[in-house]
Amino acid sequence: MPLTIDSSRSGDRAVIRLEGTIDASSAERVRQAVDAALADHPAWLELDVEQVVFMSSAGLRVVIFAKQKEPDVKIAFRKPQPPILETLKKTGFFSAVYVIGDEE
Amino acid sequence: MPTFAGTLDSLEPIRAYVGAAAANAGLDSSKVYDLCMAVDEIATNIVTHGYEESGGSGSIDVEAAPESGSVVVRLFDSSPEYDPDERVVSDEELATELADRPIGGLGIFLVRKSVDEFRYARLDGRNVHTFRVKLP
Questions:
Q1: What class does CATH assign to A4-100?
Q2: In the list A28, B50, B93, B119, which could disulfide-bond B46, CB 3.0-4.6 Å?
Q3: Are the Cβ atoms of B37 and A25 closer than 8 angstroms?
Q4: Which of A23, A47, A52, A98 to mutate to test the interface with B (most CBs of B within 10 A)?
Q5: pTM of the model
Q6: How far A22 CA sits from the closest chain B CA (Å)?
Q7: Model ipTM?
Q8: pLDDT tens for residues A65-95?
């Protein structure tokens, strides 16, 4: 499934909506979107991954890239599917990012 | 045994092939996902570290079938020999701040967490990666 990327800004929050699969063939496009979203120093970087069906470590490396570029930005994953949540937990990313569920 | 080009464009079809074989063999969807993740990580390494970094090109043969109570996947490629454990992220590193994390090694870490058994061998001038997940 090809990856579609939709970036927007809402107050102090940069939102990147992703749909499809994030693997090594598509992660560079996500990195570019993150790079652009961080250019004006948002307080939050929200990755809306509700429609992401697969994410490899290439997606995790984009998160590390974001933290290295903008150490103070808070990174949130919105509505990750169970296997993606599991990947965040297995790798310790779960404690380093915010996970937003249905309640917000 | 299907052959895929040793390029990143093959990741999706390799996952689709392995996923279908694993589901047919009776793995549940969460284990199918984990197996596809492990295979994807290694296929990515074969393409980016194996073929692209060595300036070469080649293909990846993929075998996926039930075998004595497990689903077994094997990837065969002709990129240079290497040590898959050369750079594995440690639990200590996983506990550090994200910005301090090493960029490498996460893939192999995930592979080892995602299947029951993972092995690497060099056989007849080819790399052979074997993944095994027990059937319920």
A1: alpha beta
A2: B50
A3: no
A4: A23
A5: 0.93
A6: 10
A7: 0.93
A8: 999 999 999 999 999 999 999 999 999 889 8
